[in-house]
Every structure is written in C-alpha cells, then in structure tokens.
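Weekly modeling sync, notes
Attendees: S.R. (lead), two postdocs, one rotation student

Agenda item 3: backlog of single-chain predictions. S.R. asked that every request posted to the team notebook include the full sequence so nobody has to chase files. The rotation student volunteered to paste the first one in as an example of the format we agreed on. Action items at the bottom.

Example entry:
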Amino acid sequence: MDGKIHSFESFGTVDGPGVRFVIFMQGCKLRCLYCHNPDTWEIAHVENYPAEKIYTPQQVAKDALRYRNYWGSRGGVTVTGGEPLLQIDFILELFRLLKAKNVHCAVDTCGFTFIKENAESLSKHKKLLDLTDLFLLDIKHIDDEECKKLTGQSNQHTLNFAQFLSENKKEMWIRYVLVPGYTDGEMYLQQTRNFIDNLKTVTKIEVLPYHTMGVVKYQSLNLSYPLKGVQAPSVESVKMAKEILGVDRFDARNKKVL
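Predicted structure, as returned to the notebook:
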C-alpha cells in the first residue's frame, strides 16, 4: 500500500479551499497536449529526473499534520498528480488516517479510473466518497473524439464519474483548461455548460488559461512540446468562456456561504 509520490507542496493555495498540503502522486495514463507536468506521467523512474519517492500512508499523514496550524478553518490536504486515483488504495488509507483527525480531504482527478461497469472499481470509488470532502474534477473536453485527440483517452469515464458524484451528493469543483484552438470553441463551451447544469453538487467552476510554463520540463526530458506556437488565451477569450460556463453564479454562491 506504499505510494509513489512525485513531490509535495506545503502551502498550496490553488488546489481547493484555504491553505492546503498538496501531494503530487506519480503516474498518469493521459497524455494531455497541454500538460505542464510530464515528469509525473511515468509510474517508474524517468531519466533526468529523480526516482519517485516511496512513502507509506502513515508517513504522509504525519508530514501533512505538521502544517495543520497554517490551514485555518478552510484548509486541509489535496492529492493531485499525475492522476492520483491510479493509486487509490494508498489514498484510501491516507484519507482514513486524516479523517480520523478531522482533516478536510480533497482529490484533484479527471475520473479516468472510474469504471462503473467494474465491480471492484465501483466498490473502491464508493469507499473514496466516504473519505473525501471535495472533488476537483477536470473535464478535459466535452466531445469524446476531441478529447481523444487532446488527451489520448475517451472522456466517458470522466463524465460518468461526474454523474456518480452528483448522484451521491458529493461536492465537486469543475476545472476546465482553456486551450486556444482546442477547448475554446463556443459550441463546446455551451455543451460543457449544458452537462454541468445537469449536475446537482457543483459549487465552483474554474477556467484555467493554458500556459507554457511546462516547456522547460519537456526540454529536460528530451520530449517534443506538442503545442509549440500555441499562445495563452486572450483576456477576452477567458472572459467569454467564464460567461458561457456560468462561473459567476458559483462565485456568488460561495461568497454567500463564506
């Protein structure tokens, strides 16, 4: 049940509410063209990068709790990646330890590992629901064929997982990376909005503008950067995406709660 972990961030502020201890798990089956962490893809050692670190759930829980005084009433622990749920058994045990200490636990995932037709997958993800306070769900692309072009994988597991979370009354934030020429089309944005509108437990939508800060990692790994020449979206494009997806309605709701 040991976990392969890429790195930690002690004072994360963008992966869930409040100040958070963020755990970057190693390994991902997707190959998103815009990925800025290609060093988290492989579950094994990658040349030019340090070998992944092996930790027990007990070690990570102990490390995380050292920072508890900085979290305030809203912070906690977030696992991300890579795709963290490739190591779901490790996360189940880690969250069991953290929930025993009343820690707010969040998962940043694309839901790729959720296979509703598979009894074992369904059982483990149901256990995860009981231990997780918030899911940060990445919708890569609403169109299945376009998603395959963008990530190398279908979007069906992601969309099924979103519906699974909604049906089980689990809070989720939707994350949407805005990539010019790929995910910024008005038709796709409206289709994404229509899908989100049918989910009952979304409390926030985050539009994340594409950036090129990960290019140096591709160079270090001797990988060709797949979106060479693609620029960050314009301010107007980001504004349009937020308007179509209805970001403000959730911001207003959160302000009332807080």
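Discussion: group reviewed the output briefly. Residues 65 and 101 are 9 Å apart (CA to CA).
Action items: rotation student to repeat for the remaining queue; S.R. to check formatting next week.
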